[in-house]
Write a structure and sequence with these properties.
Layout (H helix, E strand, L loop, with lengths): L1 E5 L6 H15 L3 E6 L13 E5 L13 H16 L3 E5 L1 H17 L6 E5 L14 H9 L3 E4 L2 H10 L6 E3 L19 H4 L5 E6 L8 H14 L2 E6 L5 H11 L5 E5 L4 H5 L4 E4 L8 H8 L4 E4 L14 E4 L4 H12 L2 H16 L3 H17 L2
Parallel strand pairs: 1-2, 1-4, 2-3, 4-5, 5-6, 6-7, 8-9, 8-11, 9-10, 11-12, 12-13
The structure holds ligand GMT.
């Protein structure tokens, strides 16, 4: 199949999922065209089936806001015609489903029928999309998609609750490539550089937005390090980062916390991690937790949104109510304080992650593409 993938090219989960999906489809022989405003961070153009087309938005001083949706829908029309693309798969409803719908309409006028699959990722529904300023356009473009998927049952339920959706939403969970080589053959895990032998290493990875409840990460770690020797790795950039640095200083734990900024070396950090913290206000899925589990790292998370569909409490880690830092710290210590318990949870985390292996999930996407093409 010839498929156009539209996504946000940044470090966010939706862009990562879209990129990994495209890479795997290309390995399976499909021709994949990424159409976005810059090259997705995890996209290596190493496969002849992978193409990248940049959406350029000319700056015009008259405009207060440059019309990205217009440029994207025009680019989609041009690329569909030029490369004979058969299907659009847009990730994140805003504004991609809307731009995709416009492209479909323009192409229809030229006698070209192309189906559109829209994948809902989370904040496009929960935080941003349900805002009254966007809601009519988001509702419309979801209803006008040929097939709609969501990354968890929780997000599907939420979408029906918040919008007047007339379409079936198919749940296709996010995935991970379990068997990919995670470390360089010549560069083994560098745990010794980060912490001493008796210290436990705890990691948080996110875009440091308020929804991630960054102060809870620091507070949970603070409680842990009072009981056992430990270090905290904070990976990512975002508006809450400075606040977290200040909180670490106030708590007198700055020497035990390392702020990495954004990193493309997530696997290198996860290889020496003992426990992952994700206390978010909500997560439609929690891809970061799955990435940790795939490296055999148990997860302490909140129980909101789709997190219980990924992190199985008492097995791959524990779930607590949002904001309950005492419970999170207690659960973390119950895993970390005992070597045997820790290795049991590590093994379990990996076993749960295997359920989300790309090889299990990819046929679900291929099946919906075939369905969309058949019904076009
Ligand atoms: O919240 C983020 O970290 C970014 C956000 C995005 O839009 O890329 O992530 C959302 O999509 C991910 C991939 O499907 C999910 O794993 C995240 O849980 C989801 N974030 C939220 O729902 C807050």
């Amino acid at each position: 199949m010839k498929i156009a993938i539209v996504c946000y090219p940044t470090f966010g989960g939706s862009g990562v999922v879209a990129t990994e999906l495209g890479l795997e489809l290309a390995r399976r022989g499909h021709e994949i065209h990424f159409i976005t405003y810059s090259q997705p961070v995890r996209l290596a153009l190493l496969n002849p089936n992978i193409h990248y087309h940049e959406v350029n938005v000319p700056e015009y001083p008259l405009f207060h806001f440059q019309p990205y949706e217009l440029a994207l829908s025009s680019k989609l029309v041009d690329m569909v015609k030029l490369h004979k693309i058969e299907l659009l798969h847009v990730h994140y409803a805003i504004p991609h489903a809307y731009a995709g719908y416009m492209a479909k309409q323009m192409l229809k006028h030229e006698g070209i029928k192309i189906p559109m699959v829209t994948t809902l990722h989370g904040t496009d529904i929960t935080l941003v999309g349900s805002h009254p300023f966007y809601k009519p356009a988001v509702t419309f473009s979801i209803n006008k998609s040929d097939i709609v998927t969501s990354v968890s049952q929780s997000l599907k339920d939420e979408t029906y609750k918040l919008f007047d959706i007339k379409k079936d939403i198919e749940v296709i969970p996010n995935f991970i490539e379990i068997n990919k080589p995670r470390l360089d053959e010549n560069a083994p895990c560098q745990r010794a550089l980060m912490a001493s032998k008796e210290e436990r290493i705890i990691t948080h990875i996110s875009n440091f937005r308020a929804i991630k409840r960054i102060p809870d990460v620091v507070k949970v770690f603070n409680k842990i390090q009072k009981e056992i020797p430990a270090k905290l790795m904070m990976v990512g950039e975002g508006p809450e980062k400075e606040k977290a640095e200040i909180l670490c200083e106030e708590l007198g734990i700055s020497d035990k916390v390392i702020f990495f900024g954004n990193s493309n070396d997530i696997d290198k950090i996860l290889c020496y991690t003992d426990l992952f913290l994700l206390p978010s206000e909500t997560e439609s899925f929690g891809l970061a937790a799955l990435e940790a589990m795939a490296c055999g790292v148990p997860v302490i998370s909140s129980n909101s949104g789709g997190l219980p569909e990924v992190n199985f409490s008492g097995i791959s880690g524990y779930l607590s109510d949002v904001g309950d830092v005492d419970d999170m710290a207690k659960n973390a210590l119950s895993i970390l304080a005992d070597d045997e318990e820790l290795s049991k949870f590590k093994q379990n985390a990996l076993n749960v992650a295997k359920q989300f292996d790309i090889l299990n999930i990819m046929p679900l996407y291929e099946a919906i593409y075939e369905k969309a093409l058949k019904n076009k």
